[in-house]
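Hi support team,

I've been running sequence recovery on a batch of backbones for a student project. Most finish fine, but this one hangs at about 90% for roughly twenty minutes before it completes. I'm not sure whether the input is malformed or the queue is just slow. I've pasted the structure tokens below so you can try to reproduce it. Let me know if you need the job ID as well.

Thanks,
M.K.
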């Protein structure tokens, strides 16, 4: 099963950063070393409000399929619906990353047969 192809109600994207290590001397001098040429640790938080319970189940099924926060996966382009900028900006694959769950999907039952789902993902090399 692939990641559900529903259009999210909202997205919150964090661009991540390049792997940098900072060393500080006692005098206050600072040395920074760049350990890679690819940005990583991007985050995307997705909200799916007031969806059918059967669609909410799909997120838990996918979470189980990729063994929770263990395995990585690609995201469908439906996630970018409503974004008018370049799609490469919000995709992990443009920087050589894949997505994985940062935590389990959170489901809130809003009324009988309807739920809201919160999904938090992180981009990793």
């Amino acid at each position: 099963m692939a990641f559900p192809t529903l259009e999210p109600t909202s997205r919150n994207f964090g661009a991540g950063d390049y792997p940098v290590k900072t060393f500080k001397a006692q005098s206050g001098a600072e040395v920074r070393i760049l350990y890679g040429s690819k940005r990583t640790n991007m985050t995307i938080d997705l909200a799916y409000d007031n969806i059918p319970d059967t669609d909410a189940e799909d997120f838990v099924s996918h979470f189980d399929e990729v063994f929770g926060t263990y395995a990585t996966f690609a995201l469908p382009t439906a996630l970018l619906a409503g974004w008018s900028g370049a799609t490469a900006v919000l995709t992990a694959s443009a920087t050589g990353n894949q997505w994985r769950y940062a935590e389990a999907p959170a489901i809130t039952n809003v009324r009988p047969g309807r739920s809201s789902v919160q999904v938090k993902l992180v981009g990793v090399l």
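--
Follow-up from support: It reproduced on our side and the slowdown came from queue contention, not your input. DSSP finds one helix and seven strands in the chain. No action needed from you.
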